[in-house]
Amino acid sequence: MSKTLLSLGHGYSARALAPRLLAKGWRVIGTTRSAEKAAEIAQTGAEPVIWPGTDLSPFFDEADALLISAGPGPDGDPVLAEARAAVIAAAGGLDWAGYLSTTGVYGDHGGGWVDETAPLTPATRRGQARVEAEAAWAAIPGLPLHIFRLAGIYGPGRGPFAKVLNGTARRIIKKDQVFSRIHVEDIAQILEASLKQPRPGAIYNVCDNDPAPPQDVIGYAATLLEVPLPPAVAFEDADLTPMARSFYAESKKVSNDLIRSELGIDLLYPDYRSGLEAMLKDGGA
To answer: Which intervals hold domain NAD-dependent epimerase/dehydratase (predicted)?
Structure first.
């Protein structure tokens, strides 16, 4: 008997998971806000639903699993703001629910290591909104919730190559700054592994093995492309948008021990070098 995934906010990460499930006979229903994106989703074999604007109750009734990718907005979590009653009604009938959060919930740890037990001390309003959204989903009675705290996402169509090629990339230097990252295909395999072995209440960090300074990633992309290194600019002198600057408010190394030990994950791209090399080989530049 085939199973059904209802994907709320069927974006970049969810679209990487969908082909894996469709190949195994799953039905995948994905919500999106526009007709244009709905047409793109339909081409992948998933069933698009334009939402808000459609009553989701029938889709909740049909779902065996729920994936929540939609990020919080000014009014909190958008799904719970619009469809809390439907979520509560469906919760007990679900085998699995996954919420895609962010490692931003940990805040700044001065370049130190964090795991899933680390205190949640977000340094940005976006991070605080994620803490609140995690708590809101965890408060739904009977929901078999799994929280996935994603590091910086990259993959086909999303990476440093374009900026390096068009000359807008810079190597922003901030002392002791490190970020963790994850390739979108590794997100997909981690979600699939969790679906196969649910543990309601689980929280997983989703990141690769190699936290690294952002300037190293830009530099390696330039090396792969065989172009000159982008200029190095001190963080204090960089003309950054408030959004870009906020990313540098946090420095930490995120541990992925749990996904490896509990879910048996062998990362496809254990570091940014292998990920970028694969992207370039596949035409991702």
So the answer is: 9-207
